[in-house]
C-alpha cells in the first residue's frame, strides 16, 4: 500500500513538473511588417520599445515571442485567419473593430499626411499604404478612395516625384523612414500637422478566433505586469521614445 502511494505521488509530481515546463515553453506569435528586423536594428523608437516591452513582460510569464514577417496587408490577413496570434503594432484605427479586438494600450501615435514641399496646397491624389479589408488610417478616407501602395517606401517615392499629393500614414513611422533608408527625400517631404488624429497603439487579435482571444488574455496579463513593475517606462526611456507617445497616465 505504501509502495502504491509512493508511486502515485511520483507520477503526480512528474505531471506537475511537465505542466510547468510546457507552460514555460509556450510561444506567442505576432504577424509583423516586412521591415520588422530593420526597424528593430535601426531603432524606430516606439516600435522597438514596444517589441522589447512585450518580450520582457511575456518572458516573466514563461512565454516567448515569435515574429512572422510578411507584407503588411498579408500580416493583417494572417491575423484575421488565426495563422498568427496577433498583429504587431496595431493602432486603434477606424474600421479595425470589424475584425479585431485590441490588447490593452501600450502607447500613442499620431496619424496624418505627408506632402511635397512644392505641393503644399494640392490634395487631388491621396495615397495610403494597403492595410487590408476594413482598416482605415484616417476617419475621413475610405481605403477605396485612396491610391493604394504596397509599402510606405513606395508611397514616399511617389510623393518625392510629385506623382501624388498626400501620403497618409503614421507620423512616427514616416519620420523614421525619412531619417534612415529614405534620407535623400527628407528635405523635400514634410508632415501636415494641421490635420491629424491621435490614436492608441496595441496588438490586434482576431475576435472570431478562440486561440487568438486566449493569446490576447496572456498578452494583457503581461502588459499589466510590465506597467505595474516599471518595465514599460524603463524601456520607453531607454529607447528614447518621445513622452508624447507614452500612455497618458504614465507620461509624467
From TrEMBL:
Q: Indicate whether Signal appears among the record's keywords.
A: yes
Which Gene3D superfamilies does the record associate with it? Periplasmic binding protein-like II (3.40.190.10)
Question: What is the protein name for this chain?
Answer: Amino acid ABC transporter substrate-binding protein
Residues of the signal peptide: 1-21
UniProt keyword list? Signal
